[in-house]
Write a structure and sequence with these properties.
The chain has 19 helices and 10 strands. The chain has 467 residues and is mostly helical. The strands form 5 sheets. Strands 1-3 form a two-stranded antiparallel ribbon. A two-stranded antiparallel ribbon has the order 2-8. A hairpin with a 5-residue loop joins strand 4 and strand 5. The two termini are 18 Å apart. About 6% of the residues have low confidence.
């Protein structure tokens, strides 16, 4: 994969490089390879930390999903940022398609980092006290590799069908000069399921007292298993995995100010997995600059979906002195403007997954689905009164609407519409009539593989509609 070659050659972990000053004297300073990069468990840990950092590329999904769906609009200070993507005028080249091809390189960089470090887990020397770390490090690496492959499937393949449908290249080892063809969706998904199951089996149990949201553990892996099961329409598994997370009680739902505090990083309520940004504005500056220029704004459609007593109306959306609305989810923390952590998985999603799966399974459980929907709403909307449902289609529509409101700007809306065969339908106040709708059968629900990848790898097949 020639284009991946440039990505992969830069993927050796930044680790503790040399054991003593003598090594610096003896080894050429311009020689750095896997062989001398990983000499201890500590080195492997640092290589694994680098892999976690690369999952920050999930921000590409968050940004592209917002631009391609109906949850965002071009802001009042937009000078072209994301405009071609928003108008569905993107192609596979870096000039017009940078927003939609970014995930390709980002996820393969993550996958290659995992594949480079994995062989070292079993071979580096370790003290007796360090030995238990081997299983944990392997679990983290194969878990992250699975998340990278899943991110690629969502963006670069059609609505899920495991039967001989073109997927993405499945990479299980680091190969900077290979020219892999696309595996089937089923092959890639089987490996994702296998990797996550093994990762989970290698990790210790966690409790509310020792849970951490900055590394993979049994609970947040279950959260991803629930997300992926919903994606592949295995509703019984989606219910089981979502229930596993909810019943663990590691991060119960919050309400009112305790919920709003999530988005300024004053608390980690509900957060199951995050990427920490202590000084970086990588997430916040996608939407609004430090001086307050609004590039990408919440859509009128999204703002209108919140009632006056819904905490999300003010937790997710801000308004400046010039009456410009901005994305408040990534606006500021105590560390500074636009410096916020990336929240990649939350407990609220688990309630919505379980609700949807109960509503869509072969024998729907309307009562269970409605209970989860009502419970989530009661934690978001002041004075909320539980609703009852007798029509399954009405219930499903309400659940999808709640996903729209709850998970806005977190990387779900575009993919939710895609997996359910629904069009993007924007308000005319949000978009010119030419790009107010993306039909459900549009080829643009599958993003283009980078043109540079196609040009460099004769075995790579481009997605329909792109060159």
């Amino acid at each position: 994969m020639k284009n991946l070659k440039n990505i992969l050659l830069g993927c050796v972990a930044v680790t503790g490089l040399y054991s003593c000053e003598k090594d610096l004297d003896q080894q050429p300073t311009d020689v750095f390879s896997d062989a001398n990069a990983f000499l201890s468990i500590s080195d492997v840990q640092q290589g694994t930390n680098a892999a976690f950092g690369r999952y920050g590329g999930y921000a590409n999904d968050m940004y592209a999903s917002a631009l391609l769906s109906d949850e965002a609009k071009l802001g009042g200070n937009n000078d072209g940022q994301g405009a071609l993507t928003y108008r569905y005028e993107f192609s596979s080249d870096n000039t017009t398609g940078a927003d939609v091809i970014a995930a390709w390189g980002s996820y393969y960089s993550l996958i290659d980092q995992c594949n480079r470090v994995l062989p070292k887990v079993a071979t580096v020397p370790a003290t007796p006290s360090e030995e238990p770390r081997r299983n944990i490090l392997r679990a983290h690496l194969i878990g992250l590799r699975a998340l990278g492959h899943f991110g690629l499937l969502q963006s670069y393949t059609k609505v899920y069908d495991p039967n001989d449908q073109l997927g993405v290249p499945l990479m299980l080892s680091s190969n900077a000069t290979g020219l892999p063809a696309r595996n089937t969706v089923g092959e890639v998904m089987n490996q994702i399921i296998t990797d996550l199951a093994e990762a989970k089996s290698l990790l210790p149990d966690v409790t509310p007292a020792d849970f951490t949201d900055t590394v993979l553990n049994k609970v947040n892996i279950a959260a991803y298993q629930a997300r992926i099961a919903l994606y592949r329409r295995d509703y019984d598994q989606a219910i089981a995995f979502a229930s596993e997370v909810i019943n663990s009680n590691v991060k119960p739902l919050a309400s009112g100010p305790a919920f709003a505090s999530i988005w300024t990083d004053q608390s980690a309520n509900e957060v199951l997995f995050k990427i920490r940004y202590e000084t970086s504005t990588a997430i916040g500056s996608l939407w609004t600059t430090l001086n307050g220029n609004v590039y990408i704004a919440p859509s009128d459609k999204l703002r209108a979906s919140y009632s006056g007593t819904d905490v999300r109306a003010t937790a997710y959306v801000g308004q400046d002195a010039n009456n410009n609305y901005y994305v408040k989810k990534f606006f500021e923390s105590a560390r500074g403007g636009r410096i916020v952590h990336l929240k990649a998985a939350r407990t609220a999603e688990m309630y919505l997954i379980r609700a949807e799966a109960n509503a869509r399974k072969a024998t729907p459980d309307i009562a269970a689905a409605a209970a989860d929907l009502n419970f989530l709403r009661s934690n978001r909307i002041g004075g909320y009164v539980d609703q009852s449902f007798s029509n399954i289609n009405v219930l499903i529509n309400e659940i999808m609407e709640e996903r729209f409101k709850e998970l806005a700007f977190e990387g779900f809306r575009y993919f939710d519409l895609k997996r359910n065969g629904l069009p993007v339908q924007r308000l005319l106040s949000d978009a010119n009539a030419q790009w107010a709708e993306l039909p459900a059968n549009s080829f643009r629900f599958v993003l283009p593989i980078p043109r540079s990848e196609i040009n460099a790898n004769p075995n790579m097949i481009q997605n329909d509609g792109y060159n």
